Request: fold
Amino acid sequence: MIIENSKIVGLQAELADLDEASAKLGFIRWQWEYYRATYDCKLVHKESGSDYYLRFNVRALEGKLEQKDALLNIEAVYLGKATFPHGLDYSAPVPESILKVANQKLEELKKLLA
Reply:
């Protein structure tokens, strides 16, 4: 699921600031290369035991991701159900409780980056 109304798409932040703010909310910068990265936050649906991942992508506007002052732009936000052995199903239905937590985390991230 692409989260269209996340209100963080287009936000810009330096790498050090984005890493600090996102880590406070449980995000981890997993995949990255010199000019783009993916941040993931694991959300567990207690009723079903299923794992969901809230993910956002960033791209460097200035500098490279090995520089703390690199300026990053948030490009897209996704929510997907984890699949075995590794992957995300973006078309799987998302429980309302997971969607609510995801939206809260995105709102908190927006506030931390403002």
Observations:
- Helices lie at 15-24, 96-113.
